[in-house]
Amino acid sequence: MNGILTNIQFVHPGFFWLLLALPLLGWWYRRQYRRRYATLRMPSLGSVEGLTTWRSRLRPALPILRLLAVVCLIVALARPQRILREEEIKAEGIDIMLAMDLSSSMLARDFEPDRLEVCKRVASDFVDKRDYDRLGLVVFAGEAFTQTPLTTDHTVVKEFLANLECGILEDGTAIGMGLATAVNRLKDSPSTSKVVILLTDGVNNAGYIKPVTAAEIAQEFGIKVYTIGVGTNGDALTPVSRRSDGRYIFGLARVEIDEDLLEDIAGMTGGKYFRALSAEGLEEIYEEIDSLEKTEIDVTVLKRYSEEFYWLAGLALLFVCLEVLLRYTVLRTIP
To answer: What is the distance between the alpha carbons of residues 332 and 335, in angstroms, rounded to a whole number?
Structure first.
């Protein structure tokens, strides 16, 4: 209801002052009614006390119909118009690939409930903010593959993010493979701004493409890389082995992140390195990246107006006709 009212404007709102005359109109009608219909005095009402018919119950509604007709006419005179807004949006979108580590260490419990769940949630919030951008998702552990190619369907990206699990890839941390896969998805993009957000919590120990080589390829294609190292300082409760049924065995392990490598990758490509020590810190990092990579939007607002007084005038006529019809037919009284 509020959304409908916010799109309505009145060309002549001064006519609403006429509504103040309604009590005076009611008083005048009541006075005329008493003059027209004389009071019949009877010695006793015992014989007709409690005797009512449907006509007697409906008759008091006749003045209400006339009152509604007057209200509709006053509102119609105020000339309501519906505002039909149209926005022409020209957006120069940014192509963004999210490259996320899925090694078993992402299940470390120095974040609540673990690193992976926090990273998925914060990345999903980031996707929500990028209305006009194409986004994609690459995951990597001991190997890498494209989970979602570049798309404007952010619902699909968020669904794949929500379903990410450790263990679907061979374990390890192939940072070079993850970055190279993301770069391969961006290199042929016609967009003038191409970005990779690479998130990891470890040291490169797998894959056949070196991280620096992948960074050089990104640099050649004008792709900016933001790198994020996730994990607290010191020790964290981390998967140290795996049972035959697939469940992980946790133990305290040293948090090791190759920050020098991540800084080099970001520096080579014109990006920036961030260290996330907590869930709150990771949220701030994504907010900063969001502010650094703004989409240029050119919005043209067009307004059209639709006259809405016709149906109010028609409604007033309907109330008047209904009142006259009832008054001189089924609810007619004998003077």
So the answer is: 10
Three-state DSSP at 108 gives coil
* pTM for the model: 0.66
96-110 residue pLDDT tens:
999 999 999 999 999
In a domain, 244, yes or no: yes
* Residue 65 sits in the same domain as residue 176: no
Paired tokens of 297: 């939007």
Query: H or E element: which one contains 287?
Result: helix 279-292
Encode pLDDT of 28-76 as tens digits. Answer: 766 665 565 555 555 554 544 554 565 666 666 677 777 888 888 888 8
Contacts of 185 (CB under 8 A, 6+ apart): 97, 136, 138, 146, 149, 150
Is 206 in contact with 176 (CB distance < 8 Å)?
Answer: no
Q: Which three-class secondary structure state does DSSP give residue 181?
A: helix
Tell me: do 221 and 78 sit in the same domain: no
DSSP H helical ranges for 18-174: 22-36, 54-58, 61-77, 115-129, 154-162
Range of the domain at 27: 2-37+54-84+304-327
Total number of domains in the chain: 2
Residue 240 belongs to a domain with what CATH number? 3.40.50.410
pLDDT more than 90, % of the chain: 54
- Same-domain check for residues 100 and 62: no
Give tens-digit pLDDT for 110-120.
Answer: 999 999 999 99
**Count, residues in the chain:** 335
